[in-house]
Amino acid sequence: MRNPILAALDVPTADEALRLVRQLAPVCGGFKVGSELFTAAGPGIVRQIRGQNAAVFLDLKFHDIPHTVARAVAAATRLGVQMLTVHAGGGRSMLQAAEQAARETAAQMGQPPPLVLGVTVLTSLDDEALGQIGCEPHAGRQVLRLAQLASQAGLRGLVCSPHEITELRQSLPSALQLVIPGIRPGTVAGDDQKRTLTPRAALARGANWLVIGRPICAAPNPRAAAEQILNDLASP
Ligand code: C5P
User: Fold this and answer.
1) What are phi and psi of 110, to 5 degrees?
2) What is the pLDDT of residue 35?
3) How far, in Å, is the centroid of ligand 1 from the Cα of 107?
4) How far away, in angstroms, is 211 Cα from ligand 1 center?
5) Which residues contact ligand 1 via a Cβ below 6 A?
6) Helices (H), strands (E): how many in the chain?
7) How far is 49 from 194, CA to CA, in rounded Å?
8) Beta bridge partners of 32
9) Is 61 one of the catalytic residues?
């Protein structure tokens, strides 16, 4: 089985991130670099992680005019990342431009294109908050609408919450890769993630990749925490 764990490097410095990468590279499928680490440490941290031969998911959630997003996606592709995110709410033209930039830039480099993932509705937005910004005040329907738009625009993957997997699997092409945060191994007590699922349950519902941050990176022994999750996934 391919290792589905993407460890979220939600730390403020390159040193801390690289320490985690050294410990975790043998037991994780890749590393998520988000806004905090990228803003603090810059593209060099992505090059350093890639230099260790580990996969990188660059989670900067691009959302701008199509030309600007295409240029940002091309720059991320040249950095050698395997996955990156754009907001599906940026619209069809923006999504098409992002996918095209990933494919064209990768082809120029003789590499496979990174997976451009659409982010639908941030899980921090509830129905009331959606209404306030002029969207359909129903998160489930808004997620489905944006997921369909992203898929029709040619995106090959989405980020979604654990509780959206089943519905998206029913209504979208099965080849679509689903990347799922909000994962909590049964042994970890609650933090600010409310709607969580265990790694096993998320895969059983149809997740392809699991984004796991604090349960691994904030554990006393991150490597042991990741190994424990892998063992749970492998056990019958
Ligand atoms: O520490 P934890 O496992 O909650 O980290 C999850 C990661 O996934 C964080 O980097 C967080 O920003 C991201 N994320 C999330 N929920 C979403 C989208 C992204 O937790 N809906």
Assistant:
1) 70, 30
2) 97
3) 31
4) 7
5) 8, 10, 32, 34, 123, 159, 161, 181-182, 193, 211-215
6) 11, 8
7) 30
8) 8, 57
9) yes
Q: Which two tokens stand for residue 151?
A: 């898929």
Q: Note whether 184 and 162 are within 8 A (CB).
A: no
Q: Rounded distance, CA 42 to CA 93, Å?
A: 28
Q: What is the pLDDT of residue 189?
A: 55
How far is Cα 218 from Cα 177, in angstroms, rounded to an integer? 27
Distance 110 CA to ligand 1 centre (A): 32
- The identity of residue 184, as a single letter, is R
Euclidean distance between CA atoms 59 and 77, whole angstroms: 13
Atom of ligand 1 at shortest range from CA of 160: 21
Greatest Cα-to-Cα distance within the chain, rounded to the nearest angstrom: 48
**Among 3, 43, 61, 228, the one annotated catalytic:** 61
pLDDT for res 123: 86
Residues of the chain where predicted confidence (pLDDT) is lower than 50: none
Residues in the chain, overall count: 236
**Given this model, what pLDDT does residue 187 score?**
53
Closest-CA residue to 217 (of 40, 43, 62, 31): 31
Q: What's the pLDDT score for residue 209?
A: 98
